[in-house]
Design brief:
single chain, 359 residues, alpha/beta, Isopropylmalate Dehydrogenase, 10-stranded mixed sheet, 12 helices, 12 strands, 19% strand, binds 3-isopropylmalic acid, binds magnesium ion
Length: 359
Amino acid sequence: MTTSTQTLLLLPGDGIGPEVTEEARRVAAHVAPDLQIESAFFGGVSYDRFGTPLTEEVMNSARKADAILMGAVGGPQWDSVPRDKRPEAALLAMRKNLDVYANLRPAFCFPALAGASALKRELVEGLDIMIVRELTSGVYFGQPKTIETLPNGERRGVDTQSYTTGEIRRVAARAFELARGRSRTSKFAGVLSCEKSNVMESGLLWREEVTKLHAEKYGDVKLDHMLADAAAMHLVKAPKDINVLLADNLFGDILSDEASMLTGSIGMLPSAALGDPGTPGLYEPVHGSAPDIAGKNIANPIAAILSLEMAMRWSLGRADIADRIFAAVGKALDGGARTTDLGGAMSTRQMADAILKHL
Ligand code: IPM
Ligand code: MG
């Protein structure tokens, strides 16, 4: 048990964010009553109140927190807001400012949900993939990034994919270290690194640097490379071949949405964004703000609760509590607990209660 008080900052955000984060808060208060839990406005709700989706004050609280648990940001009401004031801009700025470059997105199929996957049961039963997505560089942040008007009057949109050796090596190191703790015998038993080295210079550098780092420090871990498009195919053809999947910011974004469908529902998937040791981690459900079901108390709170589980494990040094939360989610599902996305009729609150019953 830790001695000094730890702080968890909640950023419920928009859409279903507040509903699912509230259930994670109840779980946190139950399993770790000593944890200091704070809450702040973030995303669209912050823009409506303060004219900016991320205030300086909230950014400072985030820097001081031990872990940050975000709900979701965005919604159609902010579609016409200038890009730098959009809810999504707050999320990107938060990631960049905290320098949380390694985004861990597990795709785990709970036994009770093997039948709920879009794929055949035998393809996903026992599935346990960890996607490691680079989160603070690549085409999301590369400069120039602009829409310009050409002399002939046409407009041109420009984004820049760029990676330095340091940016590649630090996220790849995380992937190799994770793979060390997850021994497998499957086809890609260690790290499967994905890029488009056949057409992109940044992809070629990615492959070269990952290969070099592997030879220098991680020779005990199996390393395979695959073009990102082929990896997209492999994820639905034989997902259990894959253990740790490493990808850049954009490919990781796409491949992690794809992987979520293997587990039954995107409402199941948590994520952790980690920087260097000793810096606060940012935790968020992979699902978005789902404005169509917001405020109805039907959203699945499991992704948020499992994001809390990851915060306990990766930032708060409470692996024992994390294990208990994970087991409680499994037991609730075994007992038949299902929100509508999983084909059931439980409300957000009822699903969280079913989990709390096992804590
Ligand atoms: C995600 C989301 C974000 C991203 C959006 C909301 C900016 O899709 O976390 O996967 O593209 O990174
Ligand atoms: Mg995404």
